[in-house]
Amino acid sequence: MSNSSHSPSRNKNEQSLPPRQGQTFFWLFLLPVFLIALFSAFLNLWSLNTLGKENSRRLDVAERDLVLLSETSQLEQQMVTVNQVAAEGLVKAAKGLMDEAELYRRHSAIVDNLADLAEQVELLVEDLTAVITTPESPQAMMTSYEQYRNFIIMATDIASIDPHQAKYYINKAQLLFMEMLTQRQNISATLIDHANTQHSVNKQSYNDIVSRLMWWTFLLLVLMLLISITVSKTVSSKLSKVVRSLALLAQTKGTPLPLPDMIQMQQKGIGEFKEMATATLAFYKALQERCEVEKQLRTYQENLEGVVARRTTELQRYITAIDDLGIGLCVIDSDCRIHTRNTTLIDWFGDRSDQPCYNVIMEQGSQCSFCKLTEVLEQKKKTHYQIKRQDGRVFEIVATPIDNGDGTTSCMEIIRDITEQEELEMQRLETSRQVEELKKLTSLRTMAGAIAHRFNNAMTAVLGNLDMLNAILRKGSDEQEMASEAAQAARGASQIGSRMLDYVGQHSSNLERHFLPELVKECLFPIKAHLPSSILLQFMSSDQSLDCSVDQQQIKETIKNIVDNSIESLEDHAGTIQVTFGRDFFTVDSFPIVFRNDDVKDGQYVFCQIQDSGHGISPDN
Asked: If you average pLDDT over residues 340-367, what whole number do you get?
């Protein structure tokens, strides 16, 4: 009842306050501070203006020195370029690689470049003379350049007539160029000394200004300190009561104790001190009201915790009942966070509590594109779908909406790991596909073998008739040469049938023991002799024992075809073809299905690997 009577009293007191009562702290603090701040601002502006002018002048001098150094470096680079062009022309003229017309054109270009450089040197010397107190170095640089220019022009002018004298002139020009480099270094050192001198002067000026500014600042700080001490003594007695009252309120755990000091200050105080007392008493009343609300919240929380505990116990019994079946179960809220899960789910995805389902199950940082949570919660619809993790595991999920005691809806998901089932199904489909492919290859082999036999039989008759015709024709005649060429072409065509029989396995292979690198090297020797100079064929042998049983003719034909394909892929551009060898363990599954039979086993195999830097086969093919 005592607190409720404060509000009318406060309104009454506020209405009786004088018009300028709220100006107390302004006269105590702001006015002195404002005067000192105004003087400080004026002093700072004056100091900044002075420093700005000094910095502007210093930057102009430094910028001028940097421009001179940059122009000197650019001039040196351009002279190096002209010197290189002239020297290159003299070398080519001496070797007879450049005709007189080309020499004249190069001489004209050099003369034009040197004329442009002469103008640049003249401007640079004028600028350097304005900066450097001793103009002898810039003038010497100008004199050296004129001599250098004359020697370069004379050297390029007589390059085609007297190369020896031209070489002498170019050497003299190079000596003058080195002399100019020395002069340039002296000029650069002089500019650096000039910059250092300017820096020292500017630094001393800066230190003087900063010293004055620091002294004035120190005096202002002392004045501010004296004013602060005076004001603090005046205000401390008033604020100490407010502080004690606030500390008492902060230390109170339950209902706050009365505040007689604040009541007295509210009744007798003036200005902001009365406002502070009024605000402290309002805070006292708010604490009283908060205590009442906290009592009500604790009662409601105890009731709610009981409901949650009972619901959690019932759900945990259900989760434990299905845990032994190897099925995962979890409950997901509308914010995608998992708050309940069984042991199976923990074994699958780890013990990561209070995290989003897409982070725990799918291991990604954002919500899944196929998420069914919104559909389940909003439509309260049971949904069945499958997911596949990044590690390849596949899960079947049944999502069911469940109603909570607080009126909200959560999603209960029953998850089953079907990875093994999916793998078995994929293996079955792959086996079926391979069986169908093998049947097609078997049919293709039979057809190719029949075609090859018929083609060889036909070519045998053609070759026999051509041999008989070749025997009865006069040797050396055009008809006999044509018959010989036709017989040779027929023999080459008959080899196509033999190769087809080799491919389909109907031709006996002549297996012999060979050292594979030597056999391949013998095959690559004639190919390497006809390679373009832009293609590098690297043959890298091995110290391992690489003996194997192969058909010499078949392996040579295979190596030749692969190398030919590599050469075609380079398209006469610069590239590398690398041939390496080795021995490794291979399984039957690593071979194409057409080469799998009862004779092929898992084990050690010798291999030859051919790589090229060409563009490869287009993905469209």
From this structure: 82
